[in-house]
Amino acid sequence: MKTEIFKIDPTNIDFEVMSYCGKIIREGRLVCFPTETVYGLGANSFDASAVKKIFAAKGRPQDNPLIVHIADIDMLHLITPCEGEAYDRIMKLAAHFWPGPLTMVSPKDDAIPDTVTCGLSTVGIRYPSNEIAKALIKCSGVPIAAPSANLSGKPSPTTGERCIEDLTGRVDVIIDGGACSVGVESTVFDVTKELTVLRPGAVTREQIAEVLGKASEIDWTLPVEGKPRSPGMKYRHYAPKATMYLFEGSMKKVSEKIRSLCEEAKGEGKKVGILVTDQTVRFYGRRNPCADTILSIGDRKDPFSQARNVFDTLRDFDDEKVDVIFAEAVPREGVGNAVMNRLFRAAGGKIEKL
Ligand code: TXA
Ligand code: MG
């Protein structure tokens, strides 16, 4: 398949190109586009055969439902019934967090085909704040179903280049709109019964609880057994090619452990990567680094910087072709909790506490 690539300046959107891309969506074809979280791989959410193409393009398991993206509240009314407790909660949360990085698992209207939700009676809905994403949805005139625009299992793309790397030849259009401002996928929150954060993101459980009076979060460190509430939870995700190990504890203990493992792995002839923060990079030898590749995820005190960098840094390790990555944990506060969730998944669902 030939992929058309358009570079769009988010501060000066070319609406001629956007209306062309909207037409592609209406024709049942695939368009990748930036959002404030990560790039999405979009299709018309009302068109089951278009949605099927998403699963094929990504190599996505058939039982992992997609999020439907809207560009105004009128579109919400096409995909979820506007009545009942769930609807009241949606409107409350929308007033605080939309447009933005929050997906609400809501009752599904029949207009949304089962292909989107993999047969579930609920649908994940998000109103993104990215101007290019909003323009695309508006120009297409339909809500857009879109997972993250990566090949299944790989870290999500947060720049146009990473999206192009994964999906050229697999989609009709890629809109390169620069770097994503948040960098981790949206918070997935179930408004139907459980009032539970199913996937942490930039909107935190605490913020949601302030609006609704209560909200819980699944313990994502527990192994997923049986049928998970969010089907995406059971898949190895965000994973670089190298084997990754994650360590949590005092900076001193963590850096000592990583230095000694590094020495051991080097002794075995392995190419070693270390994932650190700006503040801890000095523990690994500035002049004489103990690893082949040392990359910082960002400022320890600024979880938003970590969120912006986490996926691209994991992909940078792949580019360096390291065999093993030893990663420092970051503080689990605010969006740092979402960053840790992604690191945890990238490390195959393991964390060593020191
Ligand atoms: O930020 C984001 O959410 C990005 C951008 C493109 O909007 N999208 C994204 O989609 O991350 P995806 O498909 O990579 O992740 C969607 C997650 C999966 O874990 C899926 O299982 C969960 O949302 N999900 C979707 N619909 C659901 C539903 N009805 N019930 C429970 N979980 C659902
Ligand atoms: Mg994804």
Keywords:
single chain, alpha/beta, 11-stranded mixed sheet, 5-stranded parallel sheet, 16 strands, 34% helix, 18% strand, binds threonylcarbamoyladenylate, binds magnesium ion
Mean pLDDT reading: 94
Counting H and I runs of at least 4 residues, what is the number of helices?
A: 11
Helix content: 25-40%
Q: What is the H/E string?
A: EHEEHEHHEHEHEHEEEHEEHEEHEHE
- General shape: globular
Small molecules (ligands, ions, cofactors) in the structure: threonylcarbamoyladenylate, magnesium ion
Q: How does the major sheet shape up?
A: 11 strands, mixed
Tally the beta strands: 16
Query: Which residue ranges are poorly predicted, with pLDDT under 50 across at least 5 consecutive positions?
Result: none
Strand percentage lies at 15-25%
Strand order of the biggest β-sheet: 1-8-2-3-7-4-6-5-9-10-11
Q: What does the radius of gyration come to? A: 20 Å
Give the helix/strand class: alpha/beta
Separation, N- and C-terminal Cα atoms: 49 Å
Account of the protein in words:
The protein has 354 residues and is α/β, with parallel strands linked by helices. The protein is 34% helix and 18% strand. The protein contains 11 helices and 16 strands. Strands 1-8-2-3-7-4-6-5-9-10-11 form an 11-stranded mixed beta sheet, with helices on both faces. Strands 14-13-15-12-16 form a 5-stranded parallel beta sheet, with helices on both faces. Helix 10 runs parallel beside helix 11. Bound molecules: threonylcarbamoyladenylate and magnesium ion (MG).
